[in-house]
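Below is one record:
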Amino acid sequence: MFETFDDHRSRYASGGIVQTLPGELIDSIWLIIDLDLKGFIPLTNLLTFEVQNNHGRVTLLFSQAQSQIELGVDLPYRYSDLYPQKVYVYDDGQRQTILLPSETR
């Protein structure tokens, strides 16, 4: 068994994510995992982040299956309707990847 979301493992963003989210939001997802979730909430290997419009700024809402815990993090970045509504972060034990829902099939 491996420890999920160990920050020493390789981290990636899929092509779809790189095309639809700016780098600062991608970096923010990794920071939220490392600083706000890891060690505080037992994490599964598949995390969900909803990208929400909060008065023109981005809020990332974390959730995961089999857990009632949700965490919203308000960010100083402008929201765009072009951003995906939801992204997944997957840890396969060797690498961690941020993916669009359409890229998980």
